[in-house]
């Protein structure tokens, strides 16, 4: 069975890996010159079932409204004359009830736990190296009120089987000595001992090599112009290198998936949400953190990759714009300096911005479509690194006629 995977990000490459392991002849198409050069290139690096909360919560509408008038909000709305943005925002607001937030978070944490197991298995079997740290992650709170709210909210994750611990100020600094300089401004933290961190770009490159050994054909520099179908089946993919045909096709283009699917009559509820990251070098004189985590008051994440410190922040609803200026990183750098004054070389930043492919629910779209040979693996949002191996394994099972290991209700186009 020949399968074409559209997209060479972490989701596309993990999909190719699991399909090749299942015996498929796989071709991966991507317009870039290598794997993981879009959303997977410089993301947060956190493998974080302990942060599986959906963004669509009862508090989200107020934050988005406030962002129109106040700088520094974790969620930022920049209105555009784009009907797709407003249609998506309407669906997002419909999911901002307590009941739907709880349901969507339960689906996410179930998937994330399964996906982490698949990631760990692939890492072990293929001996993949990607600056992995598996000592857990810290979810840090700066004031007692937010800490109390965080402890209350964590019940939904614990109810779904995730091990979590609450740490007071002293326990936080004992767990991560690099936070001692900020000790007076720390109220406490939630610690998830099973969470991890690692460089998603390095992982994808390492898995690409294993895929090649399994016979996967990567065709880079190949723009995907459209999909042609007749009746209930896809006939071919039109690319800058000509037509590409196969028995089956997988749409794994992240934020660009709905643009291509529209030609077949689909309105996929996926929209780009822009995120920013900055990577800083670490020298011997620096006191850099070992464990990754999230500063929950400002939603600034950090992770260490060898001699690099990665900071990420902001969810900006602004369409497909990936432009950035140094001013966009002022907020996250100020937060990082407050936490880790000597954590890295702040004078040598490397800036980046990318698009998270979000669904209103925060859960991905996996599986079949009304075209019998077209399948989806898209819409992973801010959890693509965490979810990638799980959704790839699920899709490979679905396409092979096997029952997935977990219930995928709430994660399909239907």
Automatic annotation (TrEMBL):
Q: Which UniProt keywords apply?
A: Oxidoreductase
Superkingdom of the source species: Bacteria
Q: Which Pfam family is an annotated match for this chain, by its short name?
A: DAO
Query: Does this entry carry the keyword Oxidoreductase?
Result: yes
SUPFAM superfamilies the record matches: FAD-linked reductases, C-terminal domain (SSF54373), FAD/NAD(P)-binding domain (SSF51905)
FAD dependent oxidoreductase domain ranges (all copies): 3-397
Matching InterPro entries: FAD-dep_OxRdtase, FAD/NAD-bd_sf
Q: For this protein, what is the EC number?
A: 1.4.99.-
Which GO molecular function entries does the Swiss-Prot or TrEMBL record give?
oxidoreductase activity
Q: Using the UniProt record, name the top-level EC class of this enzyme in a single word.
A: oxidoreductase
Give the record's family classification: Belongs to the DadA oxidoreductase family.
Instruction: State the PANTHER family in the record.
Output: D-AMINO ACID DEHYDROGENASE, SARCOSINE DEHYDROGENASE-RELATED
Q: What is this protein called?
A: D-amino acid dehydrogenase
Q: Which organism is it from?
A: Paraburkholderia kururiensis
């Amino acid at each position: 069975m020949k399968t074409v995977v559209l997209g060479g990000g972490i989701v596309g490459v993990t999909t190719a890996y699991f399909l090749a392991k299942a015996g498929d002849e796989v071709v991966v198409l991507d317009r870039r010159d290598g794997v993981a050069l879009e959303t997977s290139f410089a993301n947060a690096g956190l493998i974080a079932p302990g942060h599986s909360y959906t963004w669509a919560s009862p508090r989200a509408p107020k934050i988005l409204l406030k962002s129109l008038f106040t700088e520094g909000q974790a969620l930022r709305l920049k209105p555009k004359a784009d009907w797709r943005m407003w249609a998506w925002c309407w669906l997002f607001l419909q999911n901002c009830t307590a009941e739907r937030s709880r349901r969507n978070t339960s689906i996410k944490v179930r998937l994330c736990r399964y996906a982490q197991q698949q990631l760990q298995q692939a890492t072990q079997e293929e001996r993949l190296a990607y600056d992995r740290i598996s000592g857990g992650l810290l979810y840090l709170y700066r004031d007692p009120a937010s800490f109390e709210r965080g402890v209350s909210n964590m019940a939904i994750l614990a109810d779904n089987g995730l091990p979590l611990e609450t740490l007071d100020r002293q326990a936080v600094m004992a767990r991560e000595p690099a936070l001692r300089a900020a000790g007076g401004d720390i109220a406490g933290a939630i610690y998830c001992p099973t969470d991890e961190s690692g460089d998603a770009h390095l992982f994808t490159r390492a898995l690409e090599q294993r895929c090649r050994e399994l016979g996967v054909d990567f065709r880079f520099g190949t723009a995907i112009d459209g999909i042609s179908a007749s009746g209930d089946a896809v006939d071919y993919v039109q690319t800058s290198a000509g037509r590409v045909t196969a028995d089956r096709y997988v749409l794994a283009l992240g934020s660009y998936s709905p643009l291509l699917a529209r030609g077949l009559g689909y309105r996929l509820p996926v929209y780009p949400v822009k995120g920013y990251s900055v990577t800083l070098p670490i020298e011997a004189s620096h006191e850099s953190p070992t464990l990754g985590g999230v500063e929950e008051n400002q939603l600034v994440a950090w992770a260490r990759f060898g001699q690099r410190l990665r900071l990420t922040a902001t969810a900006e609803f602004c369409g497909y714009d990936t432009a950035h200026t140094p001013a966009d990183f002022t907020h996250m750098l100020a937060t990082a300096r407050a936490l880790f004054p000597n954590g890295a070389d702040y004078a040598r930043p490397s800036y980046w911005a990318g698009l998270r492919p979000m669904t209103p629910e925060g859960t991905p779209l996996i599986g079949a479509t009304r075209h019998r040979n077209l399948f989806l693996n898209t819409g992973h949002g801010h959890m693509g690194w965490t979810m990638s191996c799980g959704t790839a394994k699920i899709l490979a099972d679905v396409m092979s006629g096997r029952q997935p290991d977990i219930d995928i209700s709430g994660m399909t186009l239907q």
